[in-house]
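re: that chain from earlier
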Amino acid sequence: MSDRILPLLPASLMVLALLIKLPKLRRDRDRPLNRTACALLAVGAPINFLATPSTIVSVNRHTGVVNFSAPLVFGLCTVFSGLCVVLVLQWRGGPPAAVRRATRLTTAVFGTATAAIVVLFVIGDAPVERLRDLDTYYATTPWIREMIVCFLLAHTMGTSALTWLCGKWLTRADRALRPLRTGLALIVVAGVMDLAYLAAKWASVVARWTGHDLVHLSTDVAPPLAGAAGLLLGAGFLVPLVGGSATWVALSQYRRLRPLWKALRGFAATQGRVVPLTWWSPVGIRLVHRESVIDDGILALAAWCDPRVRDTAYEAARSRGLSEARAATVADAAVLAAACRLKAAAASGSVPAPAAIARPYRLGRRPLTALAHAFRTSDIVAAARDAATTGSPDPTPDPVGA
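^ sequence. v structure.
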């Protein structure tokens, strides 16, 4: 059962990435990067599945050619290796002429290797079907031996280039681009594991040439490494696609706004401006709706925003070394937290309604996600919230960090 299910994991990731990428390919079909990405995902998705013994048996039976799966899988792996290198070259960018030259060279090298694998299989003789140890079993067979070496050389070149390029790019990538950096890190780890897979394959083949038996490296050690590498590689290509997409960004913002939305929605509802959502509403619409509820809630609390709370919280934040912008965000969140607590308490009758604030504080136009983060995590905000109904003149917590 695991022989059939486990290979589907990297394949599923690549299919998912392909489905995400296809709409962009339709819009920007003239961009080489989009074409290369879709080609890579389409080629890479079936490789792990085709390399399983059960699928090898099925392919060989349906084609009527013993060991037909060997050039099929080796060829696809070689094409995939070349596409990986081309994708990273185009992804990383640079002078267009240099990128085109590198792309043409890579295409020529790996295209030649793929053609050589097919030709060598055709002129060679592999009459015994081997499901797990074809490379070691035929390591000394004329022409099939050369096919195996051609595949291993091309795969080693492709993985080495991919790992080196992504590793070099990772050290230079902007730390603010988290999806990209995460994807590059996953690809580098996948490349290292794939190189370990190749080392096991090379060792078993070379051992066969020298009259030794290390077939267990090829049949027992290498396959799990290849499966893990495929899974990480699929994730590495998927994370930047999903993490950098507008939908993912909107979903991330939508989730981060939840604490502020939850605190303010009751006040916004009294404004009569909240429109109900359906379960199928897109995340972009949900984000706009949540932002509108928060804005309405802030407006409803405008008369309850005490500038003294803001000043106290701001000074407390600045005394801890926070920047002006961050301290101002914490102070605004403290004002909102205190206003929420005070108005809710007055509405329930647990405390008498306070006297109207002569000059209410008007909140600045700060990023709502930053305001929500401070609202949820800052102990300065928590202290202002607690002090709102206790009448404490100084709602400043112990200095343990905002």
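The chain has two domains: 2-244, 249-387.
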